[in-house]
Amino acid sequence: MQTLENQPNQISPKSYTLEDWQKGYESLKQENDYWIDEIEGEIPLELEGTLFRNGPGLLDIDGQRFHHPFDGDGMISRITFTNGRAHFRNRFVETEGYLAEKKAGKILYRGVFGTQKPGGWLANAFNFKIKHIANTNVIYWGGKLLALWEAAEPYLLNPHTLETLGNEYFNGVLSTGEAFSAHPRIDPNGKLVNFAIKPGLSTTITIFELNTNGEIISKQNYSVPGFCFIHDFVITENYCIFFQNPVSFNPIPFALGIASAGQCIKVQKNQPTKIILIPRTNSHAYKDGVKVLETKAGFIFHHVNAFEIGNEIIIDSICYESLTEVEPNSDYRQTNFEANAPGQIWRFNLNLQENQVQNKLIDNRACEFPTIHPNNVGKPYRYLYTASAHQATENAPLQAILKLDLESGKQEIWSAAPRGFTGEPIFIPRPNSQSEDDGWVIALVYDAEHHRSDVIILDAQNFQKGAVAKLHLKHHIPYGLHGSFTPEIFL
Q: Could you give the percent of the chain with pLDDT greater than 90?
């Protein structure tokens, strides 16, 4: 990935304090069930449905903190909108590991991102059992509510009560322990497309396609050379597309109990990023087989979208110059944002005829968690929304929501700074809308002043008028990861 030219230093006050940001990383141990009564503004009457969120709700056990929030146990938050009102409920995903540690009152498992069992390396050596934490995403598809974590099978939940019902194997198509990623893409034509990674000296990529009944109708395996650390992917009409970040994995420190699996991943800055194009079944490209293109090195967790124009594919992604590694003795609450490279929106133009890739920076504001209109997934689109930094030129915690018009270049910002911190936005189309940006953008925002979280509803066509409604919860929700919206109403 190209490096930006040095910009002149501009001294400006920070839009946040580290102490405020840190407060959002406290566990929420109680499970709640109530109507939200404290509201600024009005909830649009047309907004009917349910917003589901997932993320690490438990960040410590009896005061013993997990080494990284990504090791925290999954907690589902559900906000139901109906008749101009909103109801909140949260509940932990009762995985095998969560229940065992809750009973024991102490950490029993190693975590992918640095959490170790008490007792030093001797207690962790040759212990390869990683806790399934079900903490990354939650989707309602085919009449099933699924809590997702990319390293294992989903957990099935009751959408009305959020009760954990057990693992979901899709009528035996998924085997015990088989991965089902936390980043499915929903094709506007009515299919859910997902993937799984089985890394090694060569990596197996499995691609699933599900119909609207929640049944896996296609499952294809592909082998690619080298170790893959892939968190997200994109789809077009004819392709599933993966970016193989240039990393290596040395399992020896993990086996010896010295480091976690995540800490054994190292960036290879002298190697290119590989773009893997796998034809979707029943597409005209299927006969052509897998195609691999190369581009300059960078690191990608999340993509915005991809689409085809003739012999070209356009991919928009959140890119980092490199992966920030999790050190064994580090404390994530002491993150030095200024020292880390920000995630920024880049566009990759793939010429399939010449097997060439061109890339360019779209916007240099630090941002993450992109979302678009669901009808434009895999298709040309104009508007994207991301959580972003308050200021345009420095790396910082996510405190704002950015709307970017890719056609005109116009930007709109809604900011919660200085004491608010934003999570992933979700775009919800207005019923029967005709315009791509006619709808609402909804996000959870942590309010450090009151140590609580707010549900923010923005008019996607006009950020300048501020929040349409701000729903104050009775408590905070720890910083989450991903979620989804369904027009179904669950109470």
A: 78
